[in-house]
Amino acid sequence: MERLPRTKLMRWCWIQARSISSWTSFNSEFKSLPLQQAVASAHEPVEVPSSDICFDNLVVNRSGRLKVKPVADANVLKFGAETTDHMLQISWNEQQGWLSPEINPLQHLKLHPCAQVLHYATECFEGMKAYKDKDGRIRLFRPLMHMNRLLKSAQRLALPEFDKMELLDCIKELVRLERDWIPSKEGFSLYIRPAMIATQACLGIQAPREGMLFVVLSPVGPYFPTGLKPVKLFVDRRNVRAYPGGVGDRKLGGNYAQTVVPQLEAAKRGCSQVLYVLEGTERIGEAGSMNIFFLLRDGTKSGAMELVTPALDGTILPGVTRDTVLKLASNIPGLKVSERPLNFPEIEAAVARGDLLEAFGTGTACMIQPVEGMLKENGQLISVPFNLEAANQWISRHDCKSREFPFNLCGYLTRTISDIHYGHVPSEWSVVVN
């Protein structure tokens, strides 16, 4: 045990011991009150235990048996297949709030068969990454944005709120402990999966009274082992990932479980992902687990370009990579960047005019994934242009100001974001874990 619960808990225990003599004189009715209420009634300034996550109380229990680290090979290291030696666990209940966080050897969770998470999908999660730069330092990419999104997801399910910075400090400690699991090879990283679940044993649907927050780590290579090779999307009008008034803007497990069958159907048609189009409105949603972007030309003599992605209307997940792309693209001269309602007929019309220049998906797992075609249910394939040679030329350089070869937005964004991930360029988005 490397770190024991510290100052706050010790101070509280001392105060309770000092005050106990005054409790013996309470009448029986007063004694029956809960401690916090009784203290308030007595007007005594007694500090109660913190109900929030507290990094100072973190307990670390090292594993006595460490696993062999996998090689950084995209053909061997499959996404999410390996887990590290340790995990972070923090329990919560309505009476005590958050208990002391613990880093323990990776272990199975013990849940009652009636745990709410198993029956009502009361669960949310995050996906972020840690990278190792050329100097061996650990870097997290925009971690606070991930903490903000996890908190919003928890609030939507009535799961407990938490101190984002304290949780982030606990996650950093876990990553430090597992630093040897972070591949040093570019294109590889350590995937960080925080999750919150309702653990109360109750078959009634109600707000959670018990829960758990845990974090597991997984060394990963490229999400698509083929690299930047473009993929095809199946245009699905029968199934929906999210709908107005739902929870499409939160990272909940239920949003993903329902996409497995459409994904399998798309695979049978030779497509890697699904592009969800809402029947009736023709409104474009997401592409599988990715946000979708289209690079359009306006069709006038000026040839002005617009990078457009569906607006955050409650059905779209506010992706961290999505936001990164929007901010980076807004600095490209002559490029209009838009978040707006986007209907599929608009994209079809742009293809017919030759004004669709590129399409790609974004996400923490895949980063930037170019699209080469969109397959409709009637079998019609809508081709999307993509200059793979130009993209690879951009990716192979760290100097993205060069104009020696044709501009390719996918290649430019991939190179620029990777440079931030691995610390090749200074950025406030890249947070070093000391």
Walk me through the structure:
With 434 residues, this protein is of the alpha+beta class. The chain is 27% helix and 25% strand. The chain contains 12 helices and 19 strands. Strand 17 and strand 18 form a beta hairpin. The longest helix is centred in the N-terminal third of the chain and has 17 residues. It starts with 6 loop residues before the first helix and ends with a strand. The N terminus is likely disordered.
Write the topology of this structure.
Layout: H1 7-23, H2 28-31, H3 35-41, E1 59-60, E2 86-93, E3 97-98, E4 102-105, H4 116-120, E5 123-125, E6 128-132, E7 138-141, H5 143-156, H6 164-177, E8 189-198, E9 210-220, E10 231-236, H7 253-257, H8 260-268, E11 273-278, E12 283-287, E13 291-297, E14 305-309, H9 320-329, E15 335-339, H10 344-353, E16 356-363, E17 367-375, E18 381-383, H11 388-395, H12 409-421, E19 430-433
Parallel strand pairs: 1-4, 10-11, 10-17, 14-15
Antiparallel strand pairs: 2-3, 2-4, 2-9, 5-8, 6-7, 6-8, 7-19, 8-9, 11-12, 13-14, 13-16, 16-17, 17-18
Query: What fraction of residues sit in β-strands?
Result: 15-25%
> What is the β-strand count?
19
Give the overall average pLDDT.
87
Give the helix proportion (percent range): 25-40%
Our Rg estimate from Cα atoms comes to 25 Å
Number of helices: 12
Which features would summarize this protein structure in a list?
434 residues; alpha+beta; 10-stranded mixed beta sheet
